[in-house]
Amino acid sequence: MRKLSMLKGLATGTLAAALAAVQAAPALAQDSLELVGHPKAGGTGFQPASTELARDLQWLDGMLLVIITAICILVIALLAFAVLRFNSKSNPNPKSFTHNSPLEIAWTLGPIVILVVIGAFSLPVLFKQQEIPEGDVVIKVTGYQWYWGYEYVGTDLGYEGYMIGAPATGGDNRMNPEVSAQLQEAGYSDSEFLLATDSAVVVPVGKTVVMQVTGADVIHSWTIPAFGVKQDAVPGRIAELWFKPEREGVFFGQCSELCGISHAYMPITVKVVSQEVYDAWLAASQDEGGYVDVRQFLAAS
Ligand SMILES: [Cu+2]
């Protein structure tokens, strides 16, 4: 009997899911934005670099990996050589000298040269991140326990971005059929649970975006890995980061500074759209006095 009701439950669950999918189909169809910056099952690499900054960082990472690998191989080879050549059997009468000036100079200069080379490549990348250009779009982002607030500087548009399934959106940070339906309605699937937010940051492609990052209560951190940016949101201070997205799409990040019990439930969604879609969306959102779903403008464009 119990089994039967369970089966019934499953069947109706599937039916509900199917119905939800059918209802969500037009929403999905109008959302022509590709999910770009999101984790993939079994993935081990970086998210696709979608700004010059991210490309630079990933290139630097690759270069460092080569240097680290070479050093590891050298050290392991030296260790193996020492173990085999100088063990008590093969070398019963060890030499008893304690200093070797040329060798000491070599192993001091070697690491210095390696560090200078690494620094010469990494500092320009760091400076590029830290020198904030003039922004075509400037957005102030404020971290709250536990969501993000966005204000488009120079306009009166401001709104908040909550994780779909967070208490503010009627959830309890857990997946359930209602949350699944909410995700579908917003154009996402269940795999974007814990990443998708109810209102996204919308920015135009190919334009310089400056984010002014601050915190309202405790320290949070705003990041989009595919853009190569991450900035602590410190209460009482404003820090800036910038990026220039090179492709349209949906990108995800998560708060990256432990900020309390729901730290894991304040993700970040950025939608990069064409300038026309952005302009239409910005105008409509200002008219509405809050976030308007950008997908309707994608469908129109
Ligand atoms: Cu946090």
UniProtKB/TrEMBL annotation:
GO terms for molecular function: copper ion binding; cytochrome-c oxidase activity; oxidoreductase activity. Its EC number is 7.1.1.9. The chain crosses the membrane at residues 63-84, 105-127. Its main location: membrane. It comes from the Bacteria. Residues 134-284 form the Cytochrome oxidase subunit II copper A binding domain. Its cofactor is Cu cation. One of its GO terms (cellular component) is plasma membrane. Keywords: Copper, Electron transport, Membrane, Metal-binding, Respiratory chain, Signal, Translocase, Transmembrane, Transmembrane helix, Transport. It is a multi-pass membrane protein. Subunits I and II form the functional core of the enzyme complex. Electrons originating in cytochrome c are transferred via heme a and Cu(A) to the binuclear center formed by heme a3 and Cu(B). This is Cytochrome c oxidase subunit 2. It comes from Alloyangia pacifica. The lineage of its organism: Bacteria, Pseudomonadati, Pseudomonadota, Alphaproteobacteria, Rhodobacterales.
